[in-house]
Amino acid sequence: MASPLAVANAYANIARLAADVPRGANPAALIGAPPSDTSFTSVLKQAVNSVEETGHKSDAATRALANGKSNIVEVATAVAQTEVAIDAVVAVRDKVIAAYEDIMKMPI
Fold this sequence. Notes:
This protein is an all-alpha fold. The chain has one domain. 75% of the residues lie in helices and 0% in strands. It is built from four helices and no strands. The longest helix is centred in the C-terminal third of the chain and has 34 residues, at 72-105. The termini are far apart.
């Protein structure tokens, strides 16, 4: 199950991508020259940075608990959010690998 934060980020990315497409434009014509800030690479970098940030927040919450400045509920929530984010990245990676394998199986 995805966390509300991860889902909100995904919807925001999709909305940003959709806002860049002019009304009535041919999507096939737009494939050749995507805007640099909405390229697959930039979206992927944003996703990885988001997962990394979530991991850092989880680490900070764990350190705060060890120092007696936090409670176990906050740490468990942070760790669960990190786990969901990592699971999402692994699922995307698996889909990319499967797509690559399917492409490599296609006859030329």
